[in-house]
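Project standup — Tuesday

K.O.: blocked on the structure for the chain from last sprint. Re-posting the sequence here as requested.
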Amino acid sequence: MSPPLFWVDEVPRVGGEVVLAGSEGRHAVTVTRLGVGEQLLVGDGRGSVADCAVEAVRSKDTLVARAHGYTFIDRPRPTVTVIQALPKGERSELAVDLATEAGADRIVPWQSARCVARWTGKADKGIAKWKAAASAAAKQSRRPWIPDIGELATTTDVRAICAGVAADGGVVAVLHEDGAVPLRSLPLAGASQIALVVGPEGGLDDAEIADLTALGATSVVLGPEVLRTSAAAAVALGAIGVLTDRWER
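H.V.: unblocked you, prediction finished:
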C-alpha cells in the first residue's frame, strides 16, 4: 500500500524538514496514526511531492518528518477540462470527487438550462465546497495535482471555453445518451487538450447541444448504460486514460 499523502504549502527537498500541523497534522496523528519511522508523502497540489519519514510526534495535531526523496510530476497530457452542469444535493460534491479521482485537470461548474440546482447568490459557497472536495479526493487518490475549480459558468462562458479548445486543436466531447458517435472514435490521442461537457439530471436541451456542436464539439455516447451526471465524467476520464497516454507511468 502506498504511503498516505498530506498537503503542505512548501514541499521540502531531500534532507529537508517538514512540520505537519493543524488539520493535516491532526489527520496524520489521530486518524492515520503515523508513528516515528513510518513513511508518508507530502505535496503542494501543484506537482511537487516528497517521500518522507516521521521523525517525531509532538502532539495530537503536530508531527515532524524529513524528506528522503523528491520529485516533480508534470500534468498528464492531453489535459482534460470537465464542464459539469450543477448536480443537485450531495451529488454535486460527489461529481467533483469522482472526476478528481479519475484525473480531471480542471472542473468548471455550469448553470445549464435544465439544472435543478441553482447557485444564484451563493456561487462562492458552492465553489468553496467543490474546492474542498477536489482537495480531499486528490489527497485520497495520491494525485500530485489538485484540479483547478473554475468560476460558475454561464452557457455563454461554456461556448467560449469550447470554442477555445476546438481552435487550439483540442477535442470537445458532449456526453449524451443519444450521442452521434462513441467516445473512442474521437481523435483523443493526438489532441492538444480535451473538454468533456456533462449535462444535469434532466439532460442538455437541444439548443445547448446544437450550439456546442456548431462550435466544433461532438455529441458522444459512452456505452449502453445511462449514467448519472455525477458519474459520467469519471467514466469518460477512465476511457480517456486508456485511449491516450495519460495513464502511462
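K.O.: great, moving the ticket to review. Residues 5-72 form a domain with the Ribosomal Protein L25; Chain P fold (CATH 2.40.240.20). The first strand starts at residue 5 and ends at 7.
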